[in-house]
Amino acid sequence: MLDLKLDRAAAPPKDAATIVLVRDDAAGRGVELFCVERSKQSRFLGGAIVFPGGKLDASDASGEWATLVTDARAPVRPPAVPFTNDADHLRALAIAACRETLEEAAMLHVAGASRGVTQDDLFALRARLASDPGALRAFLLEAGLRLDLQALHPLARWVTPEAEARRYDARFFVAVAPPGQTGAHDEHETMASFWASPAEVLRRWEAGEVQVAPPTHCTLALLASCTTTDAVLELAAGSCLDPICPRLVRAAPRDAAGADETLALALPGDPEHEVREPRVPGPSRYVLRGDRWLAEDAPR
């Protein structure tokens, strides 16, 4: 799932964006999130449960988007380290998040529709986009719509560890799923998809039924306390948006009779991380136990 080496020379991370899509559970029991399973053939997080997203494309920063989007939502709580380079960079990342979510999940936030965009509309658009990179802009022009970037609320910023072969500077956004859109994986980059509560995904992970990477696990744990989508957006408004770049370190076995030493990903606030202040609540590291990264506190 991850390709980590302690002595790897760090590569510069590529910009990426992710949308955590949420909706209120129909039975009023809390919130559900839309998750996709990456293809096992993928060279990065293959087989893992993730949220829709991907890397920034040069076309996402094109001036042709100017009249086809609403203003991107700036962080409510400006971080010490800027969330993006500037307003144009924020817009490009939000566009990338929408485009990738269309490609991987067949969902799209739009503004200005006299009628709702149907799921069938999005399936057809996704098929067009596979062979025509300009299909999304053409669709918006034809329908008199704009991408609703205001629907995307900044949630977190995760930077792939320097020890990883493929590195990304991923901005996480959260958004309430558009009404009437249920989503579906693309059967290319993503091989399965489902709606579930954060607690249910965590239960499946704890049972060994699915794999999740530390940023996904951390996000699930963070949102598990939210009982409504309003609560999710309130949490996002107060989240720390300073970059979280885990540091790969050696870790001791769980007990004296345990296996050989293993590896851990130390988060900001961990004694072995250069950033002393925590940037996310919960345990300060993820330790590789078997084939899973388990959230644990640093040893005393």
Q: Any descriptors?
A:
alpha+beta, 300 residues, Nucleoside Triphosphate Pyrophosphohydrolase, 14 strands, 6 helices, eight-stranded mixed sheet, globular
Structure, explained:
It is a single chain. The chain has 300 residues and is of the alpha+beta class. Helix content is 23%, strand content 25%. Strands 1, 2, 3, 4, 7, 8, 9 and 10 form an 8-stranded mixed beta sheet that branches. Strand 1 and strand 2 form a beta hairpin. The chain is globular. The relative contact order is 0.18.
Short description:
This protein is α+β, with helices and mostly antiparallel strands and 300 residues long. It has helices at residues 87-105, 119-131, 135-143, 198-206, 214-223, 229-237; strands at 14-24, 31-38, 48-50, 53-55, 110-111, 146-147, 153-159, 168-176, 190-196, 211-212, 247-251, 262-266, 285-289, 292-296. The chain contains 6 helices and 14 strands.
Rounded Rg: 19 Å
Distance between the termini: 29 Å
| Silhouette | globular
Count helical runs: 6
CATH-assigned homologous superfamily of the largest domain: Nucleoside Triphosphate Pyrophosphohydrolase
Strand content: 15-25%
User: What is the CATH third-level topology name of the largest domain?
Assistant: Nucleoside Triphosphate Pyrophosphohydrolase
Give the fraction of residues assigned to helices.
Answer: 10-25%
Query: Which CATH architecture of the largest domain is right?
Result: Alpha-Beta Complex
Determine the structural class based on helices, strands and strand pairing.
alpha+beta
Task: Please give the largest β-sheet.
Answer: 8 strands, mixed
